[in-house]
């Protein structure tokens, strides 16, 4: 019998199904390791196709990490990930990468070329190499790999309950892959929704390019800064990382108000929401949009 809340004594088949279902739930519920980044890159693409690709490549990197983590846990080598300070360090690293990406999107208007070998095989949108395309999809992939090292209820179940039950080291990575694929399916859908929403606005293509760049850049820059601050404060005051208020909802990621949920709301709802409102105001009032954003004028 499946018990997604507290699986115990799982068989091979039940364990694999549980890993996949947990990934689906992880992908659709507000999570600080997925939503802020998927939102930022999807809005930046300002299309449903671009949003899908943003969610796909972020989750692809995330899946790669979870496969590695799952294999390590089979050999009981993931104990270090269970320490609270590791989660806080991941917050800081993710935040720094987000902030750097946001800064380049806002100030440079082009993608970041960090690892050429990734750039060779990650496809680009038709407009991905010009100034109207702020979303560096290869960086979304890198974000996924880094964010995947964060822990929580889902990772704990995957690493301590499911992966160790695999019958062979050759299968140790499989629960991580299935968990990642479940997350990928949901993040692709969410990314497409964010991109589709902006695509459907009755705004010129120049206006959409400006909004995409403005919102994604600000969300990554200031949202990443919030991640760095939160991770640093939690390292200084460990009680902050352990703080939570029970909501009574029997669903992972929704069962408590904690630092992770606060970050999701602050970054997506706060920084992203305010940036979207501000960008829409600029475009709808026909104000001048500088070349650093779109290379053209709006209005």
Automatic annotation (TrEMBL):
Source species of the chain: Alicyclobacillus sacchari
Alphabetically ordered keywords of this record: Membrane, Transmembrane, Transmembrane helix
The protein's name: Urease accessory protein UreH-like transmembrane domain-containing protein
High-level lineage: Bacteria, Bacillati, Bacillota, Bacilli, Bacillales
Keyword Transmembrane helix: yes
Key word Membrane present: yes
Transmembrane regions listed in the UniProt entry: 12-29, 50-68, 88-106, 139-162, 174-198, 219-237, 257-277
């Amino acid at each position: 019998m499946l018990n997604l809340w507290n699986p115990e004594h799982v068989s091979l088949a039940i364990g694999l199904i549980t890993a996949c279902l947990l990934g689906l739930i992880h992908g659709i519920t507000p999570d600080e390791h997925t939503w802020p980044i998927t939102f930022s890159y999807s809005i930046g693409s300002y299309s449903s196709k671009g949003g899908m690709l943003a969610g796909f490549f972020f989750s692809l990197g995330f899946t790669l990490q979870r496969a590695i983590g799952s294999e390590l846990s089979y050999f009981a080598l993931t104990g270090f990930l269970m320490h609270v300070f590791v989660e806080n360090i991941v917050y800081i690293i993710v935040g720094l990468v987000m902030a750097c990406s946001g800064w380049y999107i806002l100030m440079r208007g082009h993608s970041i070329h960090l690892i050429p070998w990734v750039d060779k095989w990650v496809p680009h949108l038709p407009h991905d190499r010009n100034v109207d395309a702020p979303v560096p999809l290869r960086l979304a992939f890198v974000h996924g790999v880094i964010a995947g090292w964060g822990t929580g209820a889902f990772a704990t179940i995957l690493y301590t309950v499911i992966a160790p039950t695999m019958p062979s080291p050759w299968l140790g990575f499989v629960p991580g892959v299935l968990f990642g694929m479940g997350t990928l399916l949901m993040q692709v859908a969410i990314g497409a929704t964010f991109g589709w929403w902006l695509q459907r606005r009755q705004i010129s293509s120049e206006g959409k390019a400006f909004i995409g760049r403005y919102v994604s850049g600000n969300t990554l820059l200031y949202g990443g800064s919030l991640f760095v601050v939160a991770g640093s404060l939690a390292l200084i005051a460990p009680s902050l990382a352990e703080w939570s208020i029970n909501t009574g909802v029997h669903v992972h990621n929704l069962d408590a108000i904690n630092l992770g949920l606060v970050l999701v709301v602050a970054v997506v709802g706060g920084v992203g929401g305010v940036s979207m409102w501000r960008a829409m105001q600029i475009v709808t009032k026909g104000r001048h949009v500088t070349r650093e954003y779109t290379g053209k004028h709006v209005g």
